[in-house]
Amino acid sequence: MRGLRRAGALLTCQCGRRYPVIAGIPIVLRELGDWAESEGADAMRDRRLPGELVELLAVDGASRRNRRLLAVYGAEVGDSPLHAWLADFVTSAQGPVLEVGAGRGHAGTVRMDLNLELLRAGAAPPELVETAEGIALAPGAALVADATDPPFSAGSFATVLLANVLDSCRDPALVLAQSDALVAPGGQLAVTCAFAFDETITPRPLWFGPEELDAALAGTRPFGGYDLECRLDAEALELEWRLQVAPRSAHLHRVRVRTARRPG
After folding, report:
1. Alpha-carbon dihedral of residues 25, 148, 109, 104, nearest 10 degrees?
2. Contact in structure between 191 and 213 (CB atoms under 8 Å)
3. pLDDT of res. 230
4. Which pLDDT score, from 0 to 100, does residue 53 have?
5. Is the bond into 81 cis (omega within 30 degrees of 0)?
6. Strand, coil or helix: what is 261?
């Protein structure tokens, strides 16, 4: 991010790459074409159109999926024990705080996700700030970026949070390793996981259980070939996570919560 400059509705890099900014949210991806095809349909629509007309036009797969995601994850934060723990953790965490796979996320964090519509469902991000070094992301900022290839230097954040991300991404080990690398010395990494894998998202050979995750964070076993630097600093918690998937239907998950700290 430090190497980028603002140019109207774009961010430009010395290397010649250009990245769009939509509704104040930078789209910082190496390959914009794949994202535009799978995620960007709603972003290209005129947001001034009446909602019913947008609904009528939204016939493509990405828009249908986004409506489902927004219905479940785009609402106000729920009241389950996990929601309460996350709110307390973010409030007390040292800053700056990065939420990986944040969706609407929490106030005061830097929210990173591939889905622009979920980021838009959260608080409106502040204006991008350009410094002598490049773009600085203030608390509350949001950006579209790939958790397997984040646009940050190692050690950029005092706190990194992965809330229910590892069982809903294509490469859990790489996402965890990249997140681990973003934690500053003395900083904290928090991971929550329901282990509710879907083989259409995560290939079955990459699935894992609580024991593998604990061993990786304890430093006793690599995780998918990666050695992590953060080390467990608290006992494991098992908390309920309730997702309202329809007006008369909810999913209840039991989620494992682990926190680890990078040696200072």
Report:
1. 60
2. yes
3. 98
4. 42
5. no
6. strand
Question: What pLDDT score was predicted for residue 42?
Answer: 62
Tokens encoding 77: 């934060």
- The rounded distance, in Å, linking the Cα atoms of 212 and 142 is 31
β-pairing, 249-261 vs 231-232, is antiparallel
Cα dihedral 31, 34, 37, 40 in deg (nearest 10):
-50
HSE value, Cβ hemisphere, 13 Å, CA-based, for 73: 21
Q: What is the pLDDT of residues 227-262, one digit of tens each?
A: 999 999 999 999 999 887 777 888 889 999 999 999
Cα 226 to Cα 253: distance, rounded to the nearest angstrom: 28
Task: Please say if the pLDDT value at position 184 is more than 50.
Answer: yes
Between the CA of residue 8 and those of 22, 124, 129, 132, 263, what are the distances in Å? 11, 19, 13, 17, 41
d(CA 124, CA 145): 17
Q: Collapse the DSSP code of 212 into the 3-class scheme (helix H, G, I; strand E, B; otherwise coil) and give the result.
A: helix
DSSP 97-157: EEEET-TT--TTSEEEES-HHHHHHSPPPPPPEEETTEEE--TT-EEEE-TTS-SS-TT-E
pLDDT for 43-79, tens place per residue?
655 455 444 444 433 444 455 566 666 666 666 566 7
Are residues 112 and 150 in contact, defined by beta-carbon separation less than 8 angstroms?
yes
